[in-house]
Design goal:
heterotrimer; A mainly alpha; B alpha/beta; C mainly alpha; A: mainly alpha; 13 helices; B: Rossmann fold; six-stranded mixed β-sheet; 10 strands
């Protein structure tokens, strides 16, 4: 069993990862509540945004700041476009169908990314905040990690306040509750949904950028990191933002703290899966009967 | 005969059934009540989809609630649903045969008994027709055919006339009246169509807020002052 | 009496339906013709590359069959069939290395073992449905994939895992049936196995399980009320899907002679689901189309020099198209499109013939 000092370096890494998962988790949950779409292409969108930023910096020599903004904006715009076309087309369908469609989007984007940015080249993004902020025992913590955690907290709290205080936020909560009634109340449903799509997309872009710096800038890896976010969101039953945040931090920490434990480190990649399965099964203990039809409808 | 004693169901803060106590002897029996009275909840308890907080149900001498839900069909429980649930992608024959093959009856008599049930409800098209292509009236009849096949003991009909025009209700009424004689089963009919209930049911019970507020010969119950108050205030029902 | 007339009519029309209708007979002839052509003529018409690709295509038809059954018949979305395939490949390879049993016996054993494993894994998933079932199966698949990356695939080594760390030399190859060593012969073998799997599925669909599954797909409470033990029948569907997928896995091992963990990435479960949707989940023919899409398209792209990412893009677009406009997939669209084409051509032909009687 490794010692405390072995674990230390992984704590800030874990917290930073957790912060990013919380960031995208919040986006995922808000989007699901407002539109019924569980966006499994979240990671792919962030990945593509990060790759675009990389090209802007390394190939077109655009100032880094503009590239980062472009990445985040790309996330928002791409998600919005999808929402306006396919979100609209599938609006009346089952959540399963909506989620399956985002899988299609993910595949599509994976293909495009691998085509435009061949996997053989190693790429990386180094944010200007990668210099050390302070040391914590044996571990050094850099500003990017601080930002990641900070962003996670700020977004969770900020979004919660936004949903409660602003008109659009309240409308989103109403949509989550009952779409049809909300529409009859005169709420501009399409505009509210567009806001949800765009906002969650921005978060996807930001998360993609941070993960590209903290973890990797590889299309496959970034796309499938969505599983971590998904686990956190599922543990929160796609409802509570606070639980999403806490779950995301725990997942990030546990996943990284396993690294120095040699006996199980090979199975580290199972963390999000195991946690998600546990959450899903724990929350479906009560057998619920519905007359909803099975399969693809 | 079915005996329900102190049946209670609680969901969160609501109590759909509150110590419901009722006995039906035989034949076709009506169960009416305003919306939200607990009628469908009662059926769901009998079907096994809802676990009661307290109370007991004894039917034909057996404790129904102790049986797992899918076993109750084998015992002889049959049910139709408010939104009709005949399987669209199967044929009429297959729909009815499915219930038969999960009942106590064996393979030998299957073809005869399935066709007899289809005939009994008055479906005279090709039994190999896919149910998805049928109209509302025929789909209802398929559901009823499923309810009378395979030695049923307790048949629950949940608003079988819902959505049907008056002419079709006539035919349905005659079929429902004939079920106890044809199968020996006890039928409980829930519906809002009072003329259907009067035509089919010898006795009727009235449920309101989860308790039985009246029960007895149908004509008397429908004129009962309490029942009228529960439904609409003071106007006459029939 | 009116009653006996109705009864006689019902019985005779049922007998008529039981006799093969003309359309059924034509279908049967077409299928039989197609299978004979594929078995006898096809291998000699194809280049070695395409023989290997076609073998993969037919193998994946079996996988698509299992998944299509779950999705189309029972209404259960499983995003984990890729992992079941990997499990089957693992078990098959292990048995083929560790024993000298005849190939068909190994296939059946692989199927049964994978069936047990698949059902055990699917057990917790039975309590959930819809979106959550899809997600649970995806998570389970991911977990299994991680384990397989760690244990690797058997390569003739000793011990339970049968994996020996080899850094030099060619790894021992997974054997094929003694009567079907060559690629064309193995292709024919796989076609026959696939045919048997399809017949197995058909037997289920036309019988009691098929009816119970149709009821479950439409409405679980109604199925329960009809006496169907929903849990058992769901397990049965999982078991059948795992059985055929396990056999397909074993065939994959023999086809490529050696297996690597990266042959079964998690994304494959998703691509599988996508392609099965595109092929069509409501008919067996859809599984045939899915197998073709899955292997022939990437194969063709490689031959024509089109980068393989285009296949992934195509599948992504395909999923979006199927879900938005044609939920029954190509298998449904194709016959109706062909029928429309046929009617159009027939109409053109009729107008060309000089009017001998009625106007068109």
């Amino acid at each position: 069993m490794p010692s405390w000092s072995n674990f230390q370096p992984f704590i800030p890494i874990g917290l930073a990862a957790g912060g990013v998962y919380a960031l995208s988790g919040v986006g995922m949950v808000v989007l699901y509540r407002a539109t019924g779409v569980l966006n499994l292409a979240f990671g792919a969108i962030g990945a593509m945004g990060a790759l675009i930023a990389w090209t802007m910096i390394n190939t077109w020599h655009v100032p880094a700041g503009i590239a980062y903004v472009a990445c985040i904006l790309f996330g928002g715009v791409a998600t919005l476009l999808y929402g306006m076309v396919f979100g609209r087309l599938l609006a009346a369908r089952d959540p399963l169908v909506k989620a399956a469609a985002t899988l299609g989007l993910a595949l599509l984007m994976l293909g495009v990314m691998n085509r435009l940015w061949p996997a053989q080249v190693t790429r990386s993004i180094t944010l200007p905040t990668d210099n050390t902020a302070f040391t914590f025992g044996d571990a050094s913590v850099d500003w990017t990690q601080v930002i990641a955690v900070g962003f996670g907290v700020v977004m969770t709290v900020g979004t919660a306040i936004f949903l409660r205080v602003t008109k659009i936020g309240t409308a989103m909560r109403a949509l989550a509750d009952d779409r049809e009634i909300t529409a009859t109340l005169g709420v501009p449903v399409r505009r509210v949904e567009a806001a949800a799509w765009f906002g969650s997309g921005l978060l996807a872009g930001a998360a993609g950028l941070l993960l590209a710096d903290l973890v990797t800038l590889a299309s496959d890896g970034l796309t499938f990191i969505v599983i971590f976010t998904l686990s956190a969101a599922l543990i929160a039953r796609l409802r509570s933002l606070t639980v999403t945040f806490v779950a995301a931090m725990v997942i990030g920490l546990v996943d990284n703290l396993i690294t120095p434990i040699n006996s199980i480190t090979n199975f580290r990649d199972m963390t999000p899966f195991v946690l998600a399965i546990a959450a899903l099964l724990f929350f479906s203990r009560e057998r619920q009967y519905s007359f909803a039809r099975g399969g693809i409808r | 005969m079915i005996e329900i004693k102190d049946l209670t169901v609680r969901f969160g803060g609501v109590t759909p059934l509150a110590e419901m106590t009722l006995t039906f002897e035989s034949g076709t029996c009506g169960l009416i009540g305003p919306n939200g009275a607990g009628k469908t909840t009662f059926f769901n308890v009998l079907s096994g989809f809802v676990k009661p907080h307290a109370g007991s149900v004894r039917a034909f001498g057996e404790d129904l609630l102790s049986m797992p839900h899918f076993r109750r069909a084998r015992w002889g429980l049959r049910r139709t649903f408010q939104t009709e649930q005949a399987i669209e992608e199967l044929s009429i024959y297959e729909n009815v045969a499915m219930v038969h093959e999960h009942s106590k009856r064996g393979r030998a008599a299957r073809r005869e008994e399935v066709l007899a049930a289809i005939e009994f409800v008055g479906l005279d098209g090709d039994p190999a027709t896919r149910v998805g292509t049928l109209g509302a009236r025929d789909r209802r009849l398929v559901e009823v055919a499923r309810a009378v096949v395979g030695e049923p003991r307790l048949v629950l009909l949940d608003e079988p006339a819902a959505g049907l025009p008056d002419e079709e209700t006539e035919h349905l009424s005659s079929v429902i009246r004939a079920i106890p004689g044809h199968t020996g089963a006890l039928v409980i009919l829930v519906d809002h169509d009072m003329s259907l209930v009067s035509a089919c049911c010898g006795v009727t019970a009235v449920l309101d807020f989860g308790i039985v507020i009246a029960s007895g010969p149908t004509a008397e119950v429908l004129r009962d002052a309490n029942v009228m108050r529960a439904y609409l205030g003071t106007e006459e029902l029939v | 009496m009116a009653d006996s007339n109705v009864a006689t009519r019902s019985r005779s029309s049922l007998r008529a339906a039981a006799r093969l209708s003309r359309r059924d007979a034509i279908n049967l002839l077409v299928v039989a013709g197609g299978v004979l052509f594929v078995l006898l003529a096809l291998p000699s018409l194809l280049t070695p590359y395409w023989v290997v690709t076609s073998t993969s295509a037919v193998t994946f038809m079996i996988v698509a069959l299992g998944l299509g059954l779950l999705v189309g018949r029972v209404g259960m979305i499983s995003l984990g069939q890729g992992a079941v395939l990997a499990l089957g490949a693992w078990v098959g390879a292990r048995l083929l290395f560790a024993t000298a049993l005849p190939y068909p016996i190994v296939l059946v054993m692989t199927g049964l073992i994978t069936m047990v494993l698949g059902t055990m894994i699917g057990l917790p998933a039975l309590r959930v449905s819809g979106l959550y079932l899809a997600l649970v199966t995806l998570m389970l698949a991911g977990a299994i994939t991680v384990v397989l990356v760690d244990t690797n695939f058997p390569n003739g080594g000793s011990g339970f895992l049968g994996y020996a760390d080899q850094s030099t030399g060619t790894p021992p190859s997974i054997r094929r049936p003694s009567i079907a060593e060559s690629d064309p012969a193995f292709f024919r073998y796989v076609v026959i196995v696939a045919l048997l799997m399809f017949l197995l599925a058909l037997w289920h669909i036309r019988g009691k399980p098929g009816r119970a599954w149709a009821a479950i797909r439409q409405s679980e409470p109604a199925a329960l009320a009809a006496g169907v033990n929903v849990t058992v029948y769901k397990m049965w569907a999982f078991a059948l899907a795992s059985f055929v997928t396990g056999i397909a896995g074993a065939l994959l091992g023999s086809a490529s002679h050696v297996l690597y963990a990266y042959t079964f990435p998690t994304s494959q479960s998703i691509v599988l689901f996508a392609v099965v949707l595109m092929g069509g989940v409501y008919t067996l023919f859809g599984a045939v189309i899915a197998g073709v899409l899955l292997q022939v398209i990437p194969g063709a792209f490689t031959v024509w020099g089109i980068p393989s990412e285009w296949a992934t893009i195509l599948f992504g677009v395909g999923v979006l198209q199927v879900l938005t406009t044609a939920p029954a997939g190509i298998a449904h669209q194709l016959p109706s499109d062909l029928a429309r084409l046929g009617r159009f051509l027939f109409g053109v032909a009729r107008r060309r013939i000089p009017a001998g009687g009625r106007a068109p």
